[in-house]
Structures are given as C-alpha cells and as structure tokens.
Amino acid sequence: MAPKLKDPTLLKQNVCYINGQWVKAQLGNTFEVHDPATGDIIGACPDFDRQDTEKAISAAAAAFAEFRTKTGRERSKLLRKWYDLMMLNAEDIATLITWENGKPLADARGEATYAANFFEWFSEEAPRLYGNTIPASVPGNRIVTLKEPVGVCGIITPWNFPAAMITRKVGPALATGCTVVVKAPSETPFTALALAELSQRAGIPPGVFNVLTTSHEKTPQVGEALTKSPTVRKVSFTGSTNVGKLLMNQSASTLKKLSLELGGNAPFIVFEDADLDAAVAGAVASKFRSSGQTCVCANRIYVHRSVIDAFAAKFADAVRGFRVGNGFDKDATHGPLIHARAVDKVEAHVRDALDQGATLVHGGNRLPSAGAHFFEPTVLSGMTASMALAAEETFGPVAGLFPFDSEAEVVALANQADVGLAGYFFSRDVHRVQRVAEALEVGMVGVNTGLISDPASPFGGVKESGFGREGSMYGVEEYQVIKTITYGGMSQPLQK
Fold it and tell me: Which end of the chain has fewer CB atoms < 10 Å from its terminal CB, N or C?
C-alpha cells in the first residue's frame, strides 16, 4: 500500500519545475520511478532531453539578471521562508525520501531536518558576503574587492540523500545571488520536485530554482548540456569519481568553475588505547548509516591486533541487533539497497573476501524474503590488502576488519587509496590524535566519532575524491568570483 502524504500536492507526477511553471518534456516522454523496497511503481516523471535542459538554462540566465541585484538580506529572507516551509512539511519530505530511497523513516526524518538546516545556515550567511580593502603598493592607488555571484549553476545530485544533497548546493548558490538548474537523480526525483513546490510557496522568483528530471539513459546528454553550455558558469556534482572526471573534461571547453564531491574509501582506525565501546558505536554509525550507502561510510576498518578480537565480538553483537526491512516498518533499522546493481556489487565484495581467506563473522547473504534489493548487514574479519573491498568503495552494508600492528603501518595503509574524502580513528592519546589527524590524506577527519556531517562544517575531499567545499562559511565561496577595483589618483591634497 502506498504511503499517504499529509499534503498530497507535494507529490508531483509527470511535471518538472522550470521558470516558475510545472511543465512536461517537450516530446512528452516519461520514465517510471520504483520503490526499492517493494519494486512497486511510485509514479512517473518527465524524461527531459538536451533541448529541455537548454530551456531551463535560458530561464535561469534570464532570472539571474535581476536576482543577482537583490540584497543579501532579501535573499536571506527567501531562504529562511523556504527553511520554514521545509520544517513545516518535514514529515512529508521524510515520507518521500523513504518511499523512493528506501532508508528507514527515522533516518529520513533526520535527513529532512538536516536538509532544511542548510537553508537556515545559508540564510544567515547571505547578508555577510564581505569584500576587502587592500593596501596598495602604488601611492595614490586604492584597492577594493567585491565578491559577486558566479552566474547560472548546474547542480547534479545523487540519490543517497535526495533532499540534503540539493539544499547543501542550492543554499549557498542562492545566498550569493546565483540561479540554478538542478538535475534530480532518476532514482529519487520526487523529493527534488517537492522542494521545488516549496520554493514556489516561499516566493523564490521564477527561473531562480529549476528542477528537471531525466531517465538513466538520457542523463549523459543532460549532463553534457549543462557542462558544455557557455551560459552555465559553474557545475557542482556529487557522485562517482569516474563520472566526475567525465564532467570535468566536458567542462573544460568553457573553463567552468567546478565543485566535485566524489567517491570515498574511508579508513576507520581503532588504536589499542581506544575506548572500545565508543569505537564500536562510532563504527556502527559510520559504516551502516543508510545501509552503507554514503560516500563517507567507513569502508576499511583497521583494528590494532591486540584488541581486534574484542572489537570484533562487540561489533558483531551490535550488528546482530539490526532489523532489516521496509523503511516504513517501525522496527526496521536498515532498508534496502537502491537497485540490483548495488546488491550485486556488495555480494561480489563479500564472495571475493571469502575466496581469499576472510572469515564471515555475521551475515553475508541476500535476503530474498524481504525483497530483491535487500542484503544482510555483514561483518568480515581477517581482511587483507589484496581483497576488492580494500581498494573499492563497497557502498553497502559490509564491514571488513583489517588487523594492524603499528601507527606508521596503519597510516600508510589508510593513505594507499587514490581517494581521500573522510577518515576516522579512535584513540585516547592526545599526541597521537594530533599526529594521525594531520597524517591522514583526507579532507575530513572524525576523531572519536563516526558522524562528521554538519551544516557548519566544511564537507569535501582531496586526491580523487574531488575538490571544493560544501556547507560552512566556506560553502558560499564556491559560488562567488572576486572582482578587484583599483582607484588611481586618490592622494591629491585636500582642497582649500
């Protein structure tokens, strides 16, 4: 049975939001969206193509001319109104997230609030976009800088956080005076369209916030329309490293500004002096959040050899307490994976590890009785660097435990990855805490915690995890350009 929304008008079928209007694809094509837990059809969305996308870009460009002139305080009030409406409708947003993404409703409620908080945060940043006065080296000159909006922005978001990945990008874009074209993920478009409905109610001017949907098959041409358009001056993308490289290559033709938040392979280190109970709680939160389907999930769990048996026992006991099921089931702690390809990858990583001598501590199997996209939360021990899980991001509910013997050894293992998004470690040695935090080649470090996301905290990676930062005081800079103004002849004597 389909879930009920308190406000059914938030579920937008067969239309996208372009230039303040609800429109269909010009060719009338649509694609179906399925519930990952049941396989049932949720509804249909327009299958936009290149020409549809170009119309959205034109709408954003036309709106930019006026929106950029609004004061920071005016933009702040718009974002604050949007935030208020998101909080007022948080339960319906959470319902849509669970319905099309699969995560348990409690997690979806957390995301709905987290997503709204980005609008609150950037509503407070909007009036404070300061430039500088710079002392000149030439007598009589005066130098000032202005921070201006970069222009029309193409926003490409993933399915794992259907609301928060949009608001984390759109919040700073609108705060600075940019306009946006959002390509919603084909797996989870209805949450994005609900945000569009609320933007209209909040009074966001037509053309400032545009949302288009497209099928998996047409996604490449829509992405190319955004990256190669000379009108689009910035692209922000969250997704895989391979796709990020493709988009960066396409964007080179117009030298766009880019923010790329790409794949991760997060190390999670438990030192011999760690509080094991705290480390287990942190590992559970980091590894199994959203059934392991986040880019900052722990992927390689390194545990000092002297405590690995004790840690494994406590960790497995915690995992045995999970209840896998439909996200709307009140007892479910973990939902399905997003699609069959995700299940296949998880299963392949488990089989590869077992074939190479790993020990299955818990789980390891599909759960066909629950549905086609369900996989048991799994714990493996005796992992080695030659196993696929050591080098590839699993993006699923599989925790592999790797033993280590020294600080230098584990830092070297942690840094072997080509990516560097997040890393975690647990220790009670204050000197080690500083040493290891500085030595890890990642953009974000969690020390004695498994949860690091916060609107106030800069989010982003290094190496092949991309570049740019989202959220925080730094998030607005990604949507700005600096203009320098030099005034000459300013040292004339005072007139008498």
Answer: C
Summarize the confidence of residues 143-153 as an average pLDDT. Answer: 98
Task: Residue 48: give its domain's CATH number.
Answer: 3.40.605.10
CA 207 – CA 58 distance, rounded (Å): 9
Q: What is the pLDDT of residues 236-247, one digit of tens each?
A: 999 999 999 999
Distance CA 371, CA 337 (A): 10
Domain, as residue range, for 335: 266-447
Q: Name the amino acid, one letter, at 413.
A: L
CA–CA dist 4, 8 (Å, integer): 8
Which ranges in 89-129 belong to alpha helices (H)?
A: 90-101, 105-125
> Rounded to 5 degrees, what are φ and ψ at 104?
-55, 150
Residue 403 lies in a domain: yes
Shared-domain flag, residues 313 and 249:
no
| Span 12-50, pLDDT tens digits | 999 999 999 999 999 999 999 999 999 999 999 999 999
Query: H or E element: which one contains 16?
Result: strand 16-18
- pLDDT tens figures, 79-91: 999 999 999 999 9
Query: 211, 113 in Cβ contact below 8 A?
Result: no
**Are residues 247 and 357 located together in one domain of the fold?**
no
Strand ranges in 176-297 using DSSP code E only, listed in sequence order = 179-183, 209-212, 232-238, 257-261, 266-270
CA pair distance 118, 80, nearest whole angstrom: 10
Listed residue (278, 279, 270, 229) closest to 250, CA to CA: 229
Catalytic amino acids? 261
